[in-house]
Amino acid sequence: MSTAHKELWFCTGSQHLYGPGPLGQVAENSQKIAASLDGEQGISATVVFKPVLTTADEILKLCREANNADNCIGLVLWMHTFSPAKMWIAGLTALRKPFLHLHTQFNRDLPYSTIDMDFMNLNQAAHGDREFGFITARMRLARKVVVGHWQDPETVHEIGTWTRAALGWAESQTLKVARFGDNMRNVAVTEGDKVEAQRVFGYTVSGYGIGDLTDRMAQFSDTDVQQQVQEYRDTYSLAKEHDRADSLAVAARIELGLRAFLTEGGFGAFTDTFEDLHGMGQLPGIATQRLMADGFGFGGEGDWKTAALVRIMKVMAAGLPGGTSFMEDYTYHFGTTAADARVLGSHMLEICPTIAAGKPTVEVHPLGIGGKADPVRLVFTSPAGAAVVASIVDMGNRFRMIVNEIDVVVPDQPFPKLPVARTVWNAKPSLKIAAAAWIYAGGAHHTGFSQALTMEHMEDFAEIAGIELVRIDSETRLEQLRRELLWSDAAYRIGK
Ligand code: MN
C-alpha cells in the first residue's frame, strides 16, 4: 500500500496585473512552500509544484491535466496574490479531482519595520483567498479549507490528514469488491444500491458463486496446504488442544484459495456469508483475518459497503501506528455509572490482527450457527487508545456516514471462555448518548474500526465523496443531533 508515488499538485493562483517581477517572486515562494510540504513526513504523497496560474486558459488546462493524471490524488490551491475568480470558473467546473484550499501566506509575521506597498501587493492571500473562497462557495464545491502558516505543524497536520482522505478517495475509484453469495437473509442495513454506490464512490461490487472459490481452493496441493499450516504455527501461538491437523488444513486451503482468487481478480475487498458455504468445510476465519492484515477490506454477511469502507480506511491509514479492522458492536457492559459503560466489539471470527495487543493465538472452536465444521480463528485483545468506528448506510436518496469517536480500554477482567478476537471501548460522549445517536442516525451494527484514523480523516473523506456525515463525539447532544438529522434530511430532499 505504498503511496509515495501518488501526487498532490501544489497550484498557486495569481494574475498578470503585477508584472513579471512580482510574479517571479510568487513562483519562487510557491516553490519553496511546495518543497517544504513535500519534505514533511506527515504528508504521505509527493507534493508537486505547478507553474503559477495567471489566466483562465492556464487554469482550465491544469484542471484537465489533473483529471487525466492517474497519480494525481488532488490539488492544493492557494492564492498568493489576488486571482480574479471568474478565471477559475471553467477550470473548477472541469475539475474532477478533490482539492484543498490552503489559506496561507509566505511570511509568517508582519515585517513592521520594512513593510511597504510592494510587500502589500505581493502578499495578498488574506483577500485573494477570500475571492477564491467566494467562487468555491458560489459553485457549491466540495473542499477543505486549511488556514495557517505553511510551516505551522498544525497546518501541515491538517494537510496530511486531508491527503490521506484523498488517497482513500483515489483507492475508492478503482476498488473492486468480490461478493461470495448474497446478503444474509432479510438483513436490511447491509443492503443498498450497488449502482448508486458505484456512481458515488467509484468502486464496483461483483457477485460470485461460492463454487468459483472452492474451485480455486481445490487447485492447491497438500504440500501447499501443509506449508500454509506451518506458517500459522510459526506466526502465532498454538496450544495443544487447538492443534487439530484436519481443521488447520481446511482453514489453510481456504486461505490459499481465497487469497489467490482475490489477487488474481484484482480485488481489494470481499464479503461472504455463513449462510452460503456450499462445498466449504468452514466459514473463513483465520483466512479472512490474515487477508485483512494484508490490506484487504472485509464485511461479514454480504456487507459489501463495510467491506469497501474497511479497504478505503486501510489505505487512508497506511503507515500510521494502530490497526484497522472490520468490527461489530456485539454486546454491552452497562455497569452502574456512565464512566463504567463499555461496548464489547467483536465478530463471529473476522477481526483483523492489526489491532492485536500481543501475539494472537490460533484456536479451533464450534461456531454455534451456520452448521459447518469448527472454524480456525485468531484470538486476541486490542490495545487501549483512541479509535473511531464508522458506518455507511444507504438512506434511499443518499449515503450517510456515521462516525463515533471511542476510547479503547484494557478490559477490566480477562475473558477465559470467549473464543473470538475482541476489543472493549468507551464510546464518546457516553454509551448512553452515543448508542442513542447511532440508532437515531440509522448506523449499522457493522463498522470500520481504526486506531490509526481520526474523525477528521473520516470527515475529510465524506466531504470529498459528497456524502452526509453524522459525527458522534464528546460534544454530541442528542436533541441537537436529532434536529441535525431532520434538517439534513430536508436539505437532501431539496438538493435533489
Ligand atoms: Mn455481522
List the keywords.
496 residues, alpha/beta, 15 helices, five-stranded parallel β-sheet, binds manganese (II) ion, six-stranded antiparallel β-barrel, elongated
Molecules bound to protein: manganese (II) ion
Main structural class: alpha/beta
Report on the biggest sheet. 6 strands, antiparallel, barrel
The percentage of residues in β strands lies in: 15-25%
Shape: elongated
Spans where pLDDT lies below 50 across 5 or more residues: none
Task: Trace the largest sheet across and list its strands.
Answer: 11-12-17-16-15-18
Report the oligomer: single chain
Q: Look at the structure and give the mean pLDDT.
A: 96
Gyration radius, in Å? 25 Å
How many alpha or pi helices? 15
Percentage of residues assigned to helices = 25-40%
Walkthrough of the structure:
- With 496 residues, the protein is α/β, with parallel strands linked by helices.
- It has 15 helices and 19 strands.
- The strands form four sheets. The protein has a six-stranded antiparallel beta barrel with strand order 11-12-17-16-15-18. It has a five-stranded parallel beta sheet with strand order 2-1-3-4-5, with helices on both faces.
- Helix 7 links the parallel strand 6 (176-180) and strand 7 (204-208).
- The longest helix is centred in the first third of the chain and has 22 residues, at 153-174.
- It starts with 6 loop residues before the first strand and ends with a helix.
- Bound molecules: manganese (II) ion.
- Manganese (II) ion binds next to loops.
- Manganese (II) ion is lined by residues 300-301, 328, 347, 446.
